[in-house]
Fold each of these.
Amino acid sequence: MAVKVDRLDFSDSIQRAAWSEYVAAHPQATLHHELAWADAIGDVYAHQPFYYIARRGRDVVGVLPLFEIRSLLAGRMLVSVPYGVYGGPLFEDEEAGEALRQAMLTLAAERRVRCVDIRSAEAKWPGLTNIDRYAAFHKALPEKVDEVLGSYPRKSRAEVRHARDQHHLDVRFDSSQLPLIWKLYSQSMRRLGSPNFPRKLFAAFVQRFPQQQLCSVIYRAGQPVAGLLSFIFRDTVLPFYSGCDEVPAAQTGANNYLYFTLMEEAVRRGLRRFDFGRTRIDNAGSFHFKKNQGFEPTPLGYQMYIPAGGELPNLTPSNRKFHFAQAIWKKLPLSLTRPLGSWLSASIPG
């Protein structure tokens, strides 16, 4: 029986249930394939979703999440999925995968996009341009909370112990900490010369994933030093958005302690894996920080489809075209970078 591909109707509860059941059962599914991720994006941005579901008879045999982004910086593009680390198609067999690929090609032509950004952990479709720009970092968690510190490399273990014992840092896990986390995050983004995502995006994610999120803030003598919004998917915790007050964080080792306490909390909750997200290979600071925490990089299988006349966009901070703007951004007040960054984020799909 031939595979038929249809666009998902987000208002149809039966179609939503079919999508969700397929994603829940698929071994390669990610948090970003869940409809709650699309719903959160829809709560904040005007990006148009094109979610495709493939069936063979009554059986769902594949899905493909896509959003159309109309970027002021890169033109019109399709992204699977924006503001996420992972995405791309999920399918049962070659026929289903090819049917979804054809749906993507047809949509790209109809929407006249400059490119299609496919963020699969492993490359799924032959013939697309492979993007070797990012690596992921994963590590198994120990079985007991008191084994977390011992799972660190020696130098990082000493840094965590020093932060805990010498600076008396304290952690609080509570979703009420979210506004503070966003303030620390946007402060860090300004320091890096990069636009921040809006606070309402953070709020939308927490609202849409009420049982799959963790908000944590590190305090020193009652003062917030570092904050983190993390997600939970199956047996894995995914730290996602973080920020810090630079000087006290550097003085106390708060960033090391931030992720250490997240690992401890994850073990308490029975989680088995820590997904440290993606990092650009040319981002030496973040790349080496994660390696020093005992993680080994795994190249991500991102791919791009570039139609005739299209081009490969580079919206990363390493793009030399942005260097002057970054230098100016770092000098602007937070009262300006926070709303301006929130506006620009509609053109930068993460």
Amino acid sequence: MEQKYKKFYVEWWRIRRSTLYGLIALVVISAGLFFGIRWVIDNEMFANPELGDIPKDAARIISFEGDVRITRAATRETVVVTKQMYAAAGDTLQTQADGRATIQMIDGSVYTIRPNSTVIIRDNSSLFGGRNVRVALDDGQLNVRTEEQPENTRNVVEMLDSETRLRGQTDASFNADPRSQGSEIRISRGSVETTVGGRSTTINENEFAALEKGKISSRENLLRPPRTVGPANASQVVDASGRGASVTFIWQPEAPGVVSYHLQVARTPYFSSDSMLVDRGSISNREYRLAGLTPGTYHWRLKAVARSGQASEWSEPARLNVVRATASPNITVSDWSVERLGGDVYLVSGKTLPGLVIRYQGREVFSGSDGTFRFQTRSTNNELSIEAADDRGNRAGFVISLSTARVVRRF
């Protein structure tokens, strides 16, 4: 039997020349777009220009607040920090009264520059597998935290006429005062080796050392900051009289040998001079009463002074809110929503003015830039009390039903 084969014929002469040219152009353009996009991504053309052009081995400013400035060594240009940036060798960082910056160095150590401080990055480089970090503290306070470090890593802080090499797993605080030509070193974890006047000394965990006139003038156990007792952090005081509230600040020492305390009360968490209400040292008691606090938000902190003259670090600032006795009709909350997540756990949300403090069950959240807020809570009751307040002491309280998300009453 004769086999039959199917035959296909393509009539090439029937395809227009313009169609062929169009197909070729489409392939060329597609290939160009593909390789162009890939080149842009590989070269980080859409990256933040400040971080995209970061020099090799530069330190990174990972967080900041307030007024922080960098003077570039290469151009002598002073730049105000408004975003995450880098700090190269030779650059100078300055924090103002409300400024603070946290920097990560090449060896993974974290440097926190406190307010009113000047720091120069001397070195932050890698060479033959090693890591070299060298920083000069000209004025102010610097906190340093290191983790595990290989043997060929050097992390050094210069301060006046001394230099201190930090070891791994160390938390250290450095203070330099060029006016008195004195400096201080506090070690709360790990140890350091300090060289001053040609002599090297190891300062260990929980030790304090004062440096003066080219030598270690005193060395003793580290004095811990006082523990704030009352008012508790984020507590609320009602101005019932309308003439200002009276508040008694109470604290306890964390170590024996304390002879006096220094108390600061301010309207901002930066404790800048223009916001300070109380800046008093040589307090021998463990409490201080302050009257006439008008509605608003206040911050307070303490340091202890030992008989030897050693002063502790400042305690962690505590916040106090003075509010008016009556609720403000200007503060309203809408779009209440309650979602039961299971058992006695609820997700509560709403909308109010931007930046308000939302308090519930002793906790706080803030409303966002659009006024919305959301929090998760646990309650065995069917009702939940929520308060919205601003930083001027105005407030409004709401009791909402967790089953219907309706406002039961206001307070």
